[in-house]
Design brief:
It contains 14 helices and ten strands. The protein has 344 residues and is α/β, with parallel strands linked by helices. α2 packs across α3, α5 packs parallel to α7 and α11 runs antiparallel to α14. It has a single domain, classed as NADP-dependent oxidoreductase domain (TIM Barrel), CATH 3.20.20. It binds NADP nicotinamide-adenine-dinucleotide phosphate. The site of NADP nicotinamide-adenine-dinucleotide phosphate (NAP) has 28 residues, from β10 and α13.
């Protein structure tokens, strides 16, 4: 197949669980767009990447109100003005954050960046649960958060509204579900779901018919969901959205074994995947993506794109052939033979 044909290969779509949303196999993760990188010329470039993604078959865009302090949503609103019917917009709420719009122009973005750096440092110190940021899932907060998201996204409806990293308490809180149902009746939200940071209490969220989708970490370096979540999702007809497929950057083809050994306790497992990739003569990122894509329970794989190069690479990977059975077996053998050591 020549390059032009490859580029035009159609994107697969799947229905997201019990919703009527037909989402592209890969979704555009918008957590890294906006803020300081999207000032001046950078802003136009980001909008162009979003347009190219949509024009080349990606219809699912996942953001959150707190990403880039509101600027990620704002960029989507700018990009898809006049194209709203061509995209499925998913956002999240529940985190308290400072919207940079309230501070003036680039000064606001610099303030936002400084806050993000501070939050990153604090999150490292406090562990992976992002305890640095306060959360609020109270009905009045969620209603106002949806209104603000609608304004930033420049739309009058959100296709998928997700609770952002909720705790178990929220899965038992009838007021949360009543609020989401009211937002749905009012036509502001079409479906709702949850975006989980970890699998700690994932089972609790399958008990609600109203939850249309669950976003989970899943990939070669994070296979726990395979036996724990995928069968449950199939049984309950809940759409799964996978993220972290490139292992937070650890599955980049160019990372050498020496640097991986210094970077992560997962290096032995990654080295085994590199060997599998090289015997199959395929790049490791392609294998990582297709391993998750071939799972029927996964409706959409989110990739945290930022640049034209990310988009090109992801479109190239997704159009490559699926993994054969032997390759899948080899991957799953690594999972049982090299258990993951806990992060230091
Ligand atoms: N609780 C939640 O609901 C939650 C939590 C986290 C994320 N998310 C969603 O999931 C999305 C994806 O998150 P993620 O953890 O998979 O990705 P991510 O955090 O955005 O990071 C992607 C990593 O993969 C690397 N990478 C290598 N090749 C890439 C390529 N071709 N395209 C994109 N990245 C590439 C990037 O490195 P370089 O930049 O150096 O190339 C980066 O380190 C987010 O944008 C967000 O929408 C949701």
């Amino acid at each position: 197949m020549n390059a032009a044909k490859l580029r035009r290969a159609p994107m697969q779509h799947k229905i997201l669980g019990s919703t009527t949303l037909e989402v592209s196999a890969i979704g555009f993760g918008c957590s890294r767009i906006g803020g300081i990188s999207a000032t001046g010329r950078g802003r136009g470039e980001t909008v162009r990447v979003l347009h190219q993604a949509q024009e080349r078959g990606i219809n699912f865009f996942d953001t959150a109100d707190a990403y880039a302090q509101g600027d990620s949503e704002r960029l989507l609103g700018e990009a898809f003005r006049g194209r709203r019917d061509k995209v499925i917009l998913a956002t999240k709420g529940g985190y308290l954050f400072h919207d940079t719009e309230s501070a003036a122009g680039s000064l606001g973005r610099v303030v936002g960046l400084a806050r993000r750096v501070k939050q990153k440092v604090e999150s490292r110190l406090l562990g992976r649960k992002r305890q640095f940021a306060g959360q609020n899932f109270a009905p009045e907060y969620l209603v106002s958060a949806v209104e603000r998201s609608l304004r930033r996204l420049n739309t009058d409806y959100i296709d998928l509204y997700q609770l952002h990293a909720p705790r178990t308490e929220q899965s038992r809180d009838s007021e949360v579900f009543e609020t989401l149902a009211r937002l749905r009746t009012a036509g502001k939200v079409r479906y709702f779901g949850v975006g989980l940071e970890a699998l700690d209490d994932v089972e609790h969220w399958f008990g609600h018919a109203a939850v249309g989708s669950i976003q989970i970490p899943f990939g070669l370096l994070d296979l726990e969901a395979r036996n724990r979540v995928l069968p449950l999702a199939a049984a309950k007809n809940v759409g799964l959205i996978a993220r972290g497929v490139y292992g937070g950057g650890l599955l980049k083809p160019e990372l050498s074994p020496e640097s991986l050994r210094r970077m992560t306790p997962k290096w032995e497992r990654i080295a085994a995947f590199h060997r599998i990739a090289s015997s199959a003569a395929r790049p490791i990122d392609e294998i990582a993506l297709h391993y998750v894509l071939q799972m029927p329970e996964i409706s959409c794989v989110l990739l945290g794109m930022r640049t034209p190069a990310h988009l090109e690479e992801n479109l190239r990977c997704v159009t490559r052939p699926a993994l054969d059975v032997e390759l899948v077996r080899a991957i799953e053998r690594v999972d049982s033979e090299i258990p993951l050591k806990p992060e230091a």
